[in-house]
Design brief:
mainly beta; seven-stranded mixed sheet; disordered C terminus; globular; single chain
């Protein structure tokens, strides 16, 4: 069974090779326009500003405290790609307006939930601002289709939101932990 992971839990997590040598720390994720995480961006120690791509299919294990990779060949250097988005670096989606396909403002993107093994994004954590988050908490919605990511907003396909019975808001998520 695939496990869910959020970007916020990955950020800063160390990445180790199978021999036990630390290769760096997670600093971002690359998201294709089809809504899948393709690569994890790795910041290596000692190389200021230099980032490397770690393809998600090279990850052997997402642990609670570290990521393990089996094939340590030379990781490609990160270069911006116009066909992908990141949380914080090139074409960032963090704090981007999220709209329903009916034009309803849902909130600002705060985090993404994705299936570790395949990288498919299955949920979005939204914020309405600091005070609203304290009073009501953040909301997590799931969508059946990939988002449409534009310059100013992301449009997600949802059926029902806010109040009442809903199939799209994720009230509980499975515990995240090692596989």
């Amino acid at each position: 069974m695939d496990s869910l992971r959020t970007f916020s839990l990955l950020k800063g997590m160390p990445v180790y090779g199978e021999e036990g040598n630390m290769l760096g720390e997670v600093c971002d994720i690359c998201i294709r326009d089809d809504g899948k995480v393709s690569d994890i961006l790795l910041q290596r120690k000692g190389l200021i500003g230099k980032k490397f791509r770690l393809p998600i299919d090279q990850i052997f294990s997402f642990g609670e405290n570290a990521i393990m990779i089996s094939d340590q060949g030379d990781l490609p250097t990160y270069k911006e790609d116009e066909s992908e988005f990141t949380m914080h670096h090139a074409q960032p989606i963090i704090k981007k307006n999220i709209l329903s396909n009916d034009g309803e403002q849902l909130g600002l993107l705060d985090d993404v939930y994705f299936l570790e093994e395949v990288g498919t994004i299955v949920g979005y954590e939204l914020t309405d601002g600091f005070f609203s988050d304290i009073a009501q908490g953040k909301r997590v919605i799931r969508t059946p289709n990939p988002p449409q990511i534009g310059k100013d907003a992301m449009v997600v396909s949802v059926n029902k939101l806010r109040g009442g019975k809903t199939n799209d808001e994720m009230s509980e998520l499975p515990k995240q932990g090692p596989r």
